[in-house]
Design brief:
Structural class: alpha/beta
Number of helices: 18
Radius of gyration: 22 Å
Helix content: 40-55%
Order of helices and strands: HHHHEEEHEHHEHEHHHHHHHHEHEH
Largest sheet: 8 strands, mixed
Strand content: 5-15%
Shape: globular
Length: 431
């Protein structure tokens, strides 16, 4: 027993030391809680990696095949990290009341082979038909699930508070699959949900259907909003799109927000680059070249204009940063050929042309000041406006990446509760 308490004491000491040595911007509230969360996440990932590194009983600490595959970029440790994250999540879930208990029916079904979780209110609808929402979870295209934790609670709350049918997509993740499969699976689910027969089955008003997502899910939601808007074969279109700190491009990893928040907790710049390479099937050895923007120095002008932050961002967001025009070593120009997804608008919606953006539904774009993805969202809001789309841009000056889903004990943050409430309010008023 004393060994257990000793281990707990050491763990607490390590976390406290980490918190004390990791300064955060003064504008962020509840800093100790955020640092604790970040420390726990990093510790869980590190333990998974360490346990997969050493073959037990070997006097020379032999490297295991799992570690070798990780070095090759095959990402097997992602699966283990996903499993380990379910343990504390299950504990939290047992300690909190189900937000939809007694008010909703929740069912796991498949839309043309794609798993989705459907949330339907049990109460009688004041109108003949209800609102509908297709939600796509985040997690760097490698983590997360419609069925787990914050996403399940959030969908329950949205369905209950807005008397809305919510369809949350459980698309496949890295390393099991890569782009374009997650996009195509979400597109399949979207088209199925938008079909007149399914909308009628769930009692959804075809004039009030939204698409939404956060982070990597915001990426997929934006791409789907563009695709559905341009597809004449789809009779019912999305009425609105609501994007929560979306990842929208992988050509410039030195925007002001990437530079300002390069070492920010929860999501830093190297981790975001890794997520992109994993999603697009790129070799992880390219990571330092992408960090230096060496992959984008010969990008065509039409693509570069779509993410020219010197023209698209307000001075207050440009701050004192300067563009980084990487000119890599000989051969780096082939990166765009080796990783074609970097220029594919289905993966990078910010690169879409004005004619595509002009057809998109009105938008809600939420950004956070202390987030590497801040400028992706701000630039997209500006480009949508310039194309004639009505946009509500919600910027949280004390926000950080991931806060939108941090609304329940033990990691409930004031900014997260506020951000979620603003999002629900906008949907209530605009859908």
């Amino acid at each position: 027993m004393w060994l257990l308490w000793a281990a707990i004491a050491v763990s607490v000491a390590v976390v406290l030391r980490y918190c004390a040595c990791t300064p955060l911007p003064c504008a962020i509230g509840q800093q100790w809680k955020l640092l604790l969360l970040d420390a726990l996440l990093k510790t869980a990932i590190r333990l998974v990696k360490d346990n997969s590194t050493i073959v037990q009983g070997s006097p020379h600490h032999t490297r295991s095949p799992v570690r070798v595959m990780e070095r090759l970029g095959l990402g097997r440790h992602v699966k283990a990290t996903r499993r380990s994250s379910k343990v504390p999540e299950a504990t939290v879930k047992k300690s909190t009341a189900e937000p939809g208990a007694g008010f909703l029916t929740v069912s796991d079904v498949a839309f043309d082979g794609v798993p989705v979780r459907v949330y339907q209110p049990l109460t009688a609808s004041e109108d003949r038909l209800r609102r509908g929402l297709l939600y796509i979870h985040g997690g760097g295209w490698a983590y997360g699930s419609a069925k787990d934790g914050a996403y399940d609670r959030g969908s329950c709350k949205m369905s209950k508070e807005l008397n809305m049918v919510v369809v949350s997509v459980d698309y496949r993740l890295y390393p099991e699959t890569r782009f374009p499969t997650p996009y195509l699976e979400c597109l399949t689910a979207a088209k199925r949900f938008l079909s007149p027969g399914v909308l009628a089955e769930y009692g959804v008003d075809p004039e009030r259907v939204a698409i939404s997502g956060d982070s990597a899910g915001g990426n997929l939601a934006a791409a789907l909003a563009q695709e559905i808007a341009m597809d004449d074969s789809v009779r019912v279109k999305f009425s609105v799109q609501a994007l929560i700190y979306p990842a929208l491009q992988a050509l410039d990893f030195n925007t002001p927000s990437y530079q300002q928040n390069r070492d920010m907790v929860i999501l830093n710049r190297p981790l975001m680059v890794q997520f992109w390479l994993q999603y697009l099937g790129g070799d992880l050895s390219l990571k330092p070249h992408l960090l230096a923007n060496e992959h984008s120095f010969n990008v065509a002008p039409e693509f570069r204009a779509g993410l020219d932050w010197t023209a698209l961002l307000l001075p207050e967001h440009q701050k004192d940063y300067f563009p980084v025009r990487g000119e890599g070593p000989r051969g780096m120009e082939r990166i765009l050929d080796e990783v074609p997804g970097l220029l594919d608008v289905r993966a990078a919606p910010l690169l879409a042309g004005r004619e595509v953006l002009a057809k998109c539904p009105r938008a809600y774009v939420m950004t956070c000041e202390y987030d590497v993805l801040r400028d992706d969202g701000l630039m997209y809001a500006r480009r949508l406006r310039d194309a004639g789309v009505e946009v509500t841009a919600e910027h949280h000056r004390d926000g950080f990446h991931g806060c939108f889903t941090l609304t329940a004990w033990p990691f409930e943050f004031d900014v997260g509760v506020r951000a979620f409430a603003d999002y629900v309010r906008w949907l209530r008023d605009n859908l």
